[in-house]
Amino acid sequence: MAAVLRRGMLSSQRFSRLLGRVLGSQRDASSLVIAEHNGESVVPLTYNAIAAARQLGGDITALVAGPDCGKVADTLAQSEGVSKLLVAQHDAFKGYLPEALTPLILEAQKQFNFSHILTGAGAFGKSLIPRVAAKLDVSAISDIIGVKSEDTFVRTIYAGNAVQTVQSGDSVKLITVRGTAFAASPETGGSATREDVGVPELGQVGTEFVSQELSKSDRPELTAAKTVISGGRGMKNGENFKLLYDLADKLNAAVGASRAAVDAGFVPNDMQIGQTGKIVAPELYIAVGISGAIQHLAGMKDSKVIVAINKDPDAPIFQVADFGLVADLFKAVPELTEKL
Ligand SMILES: Cc1cc2nc3c(=O)[nH]c(=O)nc-3n(C[C@H](O)[C@H](O)[C@H](O)COP(=O)(O)OP(=O)(O)OC[C@H]3O[C@@H](n4cnc5c(N)ncnc54)[C@H](O)[C@@H]3O)c2cc1C
């Protein structure tokens, strides 16, 4: 009787969570990976999200939605580990707005009852996953860096200064994946079956995609580059970043920046690395005129080799650097470029 009374006192939300935990432990994982793309190519982060899904075991379905997704669907169908591809091609998904994609994902969830829904922890995933999670009345699990089991995940908190292990009792886990923590799943080697899905009734979306301006660069993409050279406030102005571009040309490197350099208007904000910027983990990271604040370290400290050039021998960046050069960057960088 007491047990019955206690159960009666549970909120319906808590009860469905407990039920989800029981049911969740009884079924194999079946994951949905939401592909991020631009109509032409798949954003590399998607393959890191597939890698995380593969660690969960079970079947993996990928969802491709957009006004034009034929080419991307053909590419993703070959992705190793993906057994099924859901394709939703419609103008309603122009701009890949989370407001439009959410009803589509909810519909897919209703139909297939996935145990996990994942995407990369970029701007796309960060705006989409919390919205879908809220609609499903479950918690979003953001920016995971490890999978311990089907319901237990590792993520960082306090700008990367502490590592947290979270266990979720939700019936479906809504997850964003930190790309640098999962080696990309191979782009070929699979042959997924393809299913075209209808577009659900979107109702009043309330947001309209108007236009976008994308910065174009011939340099490697920051989050995918093997070498990254970043400049900080010590660069003094935007023109001086030319020193870094010249060095980057020699090393086929991407160029990033600290937030101080972005806030001062030296370079655009898509170059920012750190807690509120991009997270990178290249083979080689060269920090030039950057002090090494924890918020910057949060975005680059997993780099394999870190080199710091700073005129202040006490700069905190030297504590994480494998190689440090105490020097004036305006002398050291041109010299390095010339020697290379
Ligand atoms: C909530 C929050 C989020 C944040 N997110 C981010 C983030 O995502 N990314 C980020 O980078 N920061 C972030 N910050 C800001 C962060 O705290 C620091 O203010 C910032 O990283 C400092 O940038 P910096 O190292 O370029 O500048 P400074 O700290 O001013 O360092 C400049 C360095 O250049 C060196 N220097 C100057 N002249 C020369 C020279 N001629 N030769 C060699 N060295 C020279 C100096 O010795 C100094 O060490 C965030 C802060 C907050 C509060």
Provide an overview of this structure:
- With 340 residues, the protein is of the alpha/beta class.
- The protein has two domains: 2-196, HUPs (Rossmann fold, 3-Layer(aba) Sandwich), CATH 3.40.50.620; 227-339, TPP-binding domain (Rossmann fold).
- The protein is built from eleven helices and 14 strands.
- It has a nine-stranded mixed sheet with strand order 7-6-5-8-4-1-2-3-9, with helices on both faces.
- α5 packs across α6 (123-136) and α7 (241-251) packs parallel to α11 (329-339).
- The termini are far apart.
Structure, briefly:
With 340 residues, the chain is α/β, with parallel strands linked by helices. Helices cover 31% and strands 23% of the residues.
How do the helices and strands line up, and which of them pair or pack?
Layout: H1 2-9, H2 12-26, E1 30-34, H3 45-56, E2 59-66, H4 70-77, E3 84-89, H5 98-112, E4 116-120, H6 123-136, E5 140-149, E6 152-157, E7 162-167, E8 173-177, E9 193-196, E10 227-231, H7 241-251, E11 254-257, H8 259-263, E12 284-288, H9 294-297, E13 305-310, H10 317-320, E14 323-326, H11 329-339
Parallel strand pairs: 1-2, 1-4, 2-3, 3-9, 4-8, 5-8, 10-11, 10-12, 12-13, 13-14
Antiparallel strand pairs: 5-6, 6-7
Helix pairs in contact: 5-6, 7-11
The structure holds flavin-adenine dinucleotide.
Flavin-adenine dinucleotide is lined by residues 232-234, 258-261, 272-277, 289-291, 293, 295-296, 299, 310-312, 315, 328-330.
